[in-house]
Protein: Glutamine amidotransferase
Organism: Salisediminibacterium beveridgei
Amino acid sequence: MMELEGKKVLTIIEDDFEDSELIYPHYRMQEAGADALIAGPVADKVYTGKNGVPVKSDAAFHEVEIKEFDAILVPGGWAPDKLRRYDAVLEMVKFMMNEQRVVGQICHAGWVLVSADVLNERTVTSTPGIKHDMINAGATWVDEPVTTDGNLISSRRPPDLPAYGRALVEAIR
Amino acid sequence: MMELEGKKVLTIIEDDFEDSELIYPHYRMQEAGADALIAGPVADKVYTGKNGVPVKSDAAFHEVEIKEFDAILVPGGWAPDKLRRYDAVLEMVKFMMNEQRVVGQICHAGWVLVSADVLNERTVTSTPGIKHDMINAGATWVDEPVTTDGNLISSRRPPDLPAYGRALVEAIR
Amino acid sequence: MMELEGKKVLTIIEDDFEDSELIYPHYRMQEAGADALIAGPVADKVYTGKNGVPVKSDAAFHEVEIKEFDAILVPGGWAPDKLRRYDAVLEMVKFMMNEQRVVGQICHAGWVLVSADVLNERTVTSTPGIKHDMINAGATWVDEPVTTDGNLISSRRPPDLPAYGRALVEAIR
Amino acid sequence: MMELEGKKVLTIIEDDFEDSELIYPHYRMQEAGADALIAGPVADKVYTGKNGVPVKSDAAFHEVEIKEFDAILVPGGWAPDKLRRYDAVLEMVKFMMNEQRVVGQICHAGWVLVSADVLNERTVTSTPGIKHDMINAGATWVDEPVTTDGNLISSRRPPDLPAYGRALVEAIR
Amino acid sequence: MMELEGKKVLTIIEDDFEDSELIYPHYRMQEAGADALIAGPVADKVYTGKNGVPVKSDAAFHEVEIKEFDAILVPGGWAPDKLRRYDAVLEMVKFMMNEQRVVGQICHAGWVLVSADVLNERTVTSTPGIKHDMINAGATWVDEPVTTDGNLISSRRPPDLPAYGRALVEAIR
Amino acid sequence: MMELEGKKVLTIIEDDFEDSELIYPHYRMQEAGADALIAGPVADKVYTGKNGVPVKSDAAFHEVEIKEFDAILVPGGWAPDKLRRYDAVLEMVKFMMNEQRVVGQICHAGWVLVSADVLNERTVTSTPGIKHDMINAGATWVDEPVTTDGNLISSRRPPDLPAYGRALVEAIR
């Protein structure tokens, strides 16, 4: 049996996501056997990454039954600046944090967690660019390829994707 | 005599600045008679706005004698995510804030002030997207076209540029 | 009271306008208190500048009551090559010239005035590229940042925008 | 023997040429046996068409011995707005017109002939956009796919290229 | 009378065609007097070349009465990778080859003939990149600007277009 | 111990690779513990994917000691059309096939194996677009997400990446 068989993982999307930070974890979850879904503001719409990769959403935020998911993944790039403005996104992230289910974030994804107000007294990493925003939100910031603080998995940037993928599989199974 | 004759104004630049948020205030300062300079990581280099407008830097950050300036302007777009990572930028902003000289910021520019740690107990506006980052940095956030809190002038987005220009001229003269 | 309060200013738009030559004067009019409107071939449509800046039209040419306006502004770039082909544009420009109301033109905008046949015995400047077209249309051509010949204000290129803005405010008020 | 064997034809180039208006006549001259050369401001430099086609120059304007050529071809697009600013270009066009050698122009190419001041009392066609510039330069303007007035061959736009090619071969041989 | 008067020539199109390899032969056929039509998957749709040139289709594949045509032309670029997947395209190419009517192919166009299975014991040229695909399909491959093997005319790349145009006119008339 | 610890995997690169088909397998190999290297025509050069993702090469083809590698991966997109023209690439692929070491190919990557002449009597899958090229090269073609024929692993397109990643890890360990 595959490591994540029977698990459901949600990736959230908006335009200008960092291409590989969305693609790699999403396919990796599928490779491990998970049922992986992509949700955006609108269903069945093609969103375009910061570098130009097109990715279609499977569902709209409001259609997602977040209770059914074992993990939520937030990509980096400029998408988090957009994602943090949706109440539906903030509520899904809060729910997953409250329920201690896996929340994965990489690069600039931390902005979404700042707006969801779930970083107080948590240990995280991120692109150094948003370090102060995360510290101001109550987090302890470390400079590591990947950091696991209970259900919260965070990573810095594309070259850390192998470590991030490993940590996600480990945390979700 | 023109309103800002004898005044010196510095605009800081990096790639992906919001085009009109850099262009409008910069030319407006010149129209009012100020000596307006653009400084970036490298001198005499063309930086490209988020929409594609090319703008050349006059000087490098390290060449700027910040003491000689009456105001510093920070554009929005994705440039602030880059600008906040330069110590030279943070020191210039801190100096201007400490000296109570005019600091102008618009849209996402607030990230630079967050990293310079100068927003505690100040009143500001910005794109709603970074509202939480500014509040977490100690600021009171208001949703207005332009807000003047002593030497600190802030604005929200391109359609607010007329109000922002007026407030800048008023504050600097 | 602001300098241009109660004044109405029309900017005309088509794709490939020189981005800053449209943005700066338009916002500048608003800063001075004018009611500034943008009209294009179609209303509420986003036109894209030569460098990529998107600007939405407020009205269609045929909806404009030109009699109500105190000034008309023509941007540069490649838009004038398109604008000069609309009878509605040529008629608005002729009306404003006949009525001695302010007509502002910058860079390649002069092509529109050539086609409106209103440059005979007028003094103008422009990008040097279209100098011969303006002279052949009967104008005296000068190489200056901004030239004011009665109601006709002309300018050369983006770095002249501060002088152009000043001359426009002066002429319209 | 091919129709244009022994003939030399010069095409002049700058960025933003209308792609097919440069490519088609240039290759057509070669197909007919002519020795066809492309000259730009700089030799061996790739210039990019308005739509994106890259074309490399064979020689710089100042290296061209215009006396050796039987014809000169000016492409359309925005390149003519640039080409008309080079004295070397204007002199080559004047020389060819004075010598009654073939001059081919299409679409916006007429601007170059306006600046070379060679259109007085000549019959031409062009894109309707620059019709007034050509009439003001002394020309009689007709709306036809191709017009041959002695050594001067003019055409309107890409769909007229077949007629233009035929007229050029006819005139040069 | 023009060389190809009364002849009908079909060019097939898909996105990412090599711009000049489609434009030149198509206009050349018209210059020689042929009735030249462009067919794509959909009628009256703008397809965009690899470099960016837009070309509109006149008809859809399924609307073409291939029996009425004297020649079919296949452009290069990445379009052949798409064109070879349409049964309607393969059938048109087979019909023309069986009927010994002219088939023109340039650069990567050979992939379409490979999939139509019509290259056995034929002599062809192409971009060297697909040389092995053509040899494996049964062809003898030569490295020449243009090769004429009965009704089958093939060419290598854009600089060979003059030779290709000449060979096509010769073969079709 | 990780599954691929001690293994060395080479990915070959050229411009216009299918972005996710290069990124996913490369990072996946690293996640499993392999030492993964990217080689292109030139070392330390940024190559750009078909959609725009930039990836830097670690080494040049001629610097690679292919004997040291346990697997070679060929991405899809238009890169294979370029990669198949390098003798160094064809020799590396032949060596790996002769030594029965793992060769991974996806989408259009098969063209490289066609030119290396290593598909005779092998079973493969690929994008349907190049099916005939592979069959003509002697292969049996199947339409499956991933096909493993001894040391040769092939896959069809991006949505098959999870299955491809799993098959690669399985084959290399």
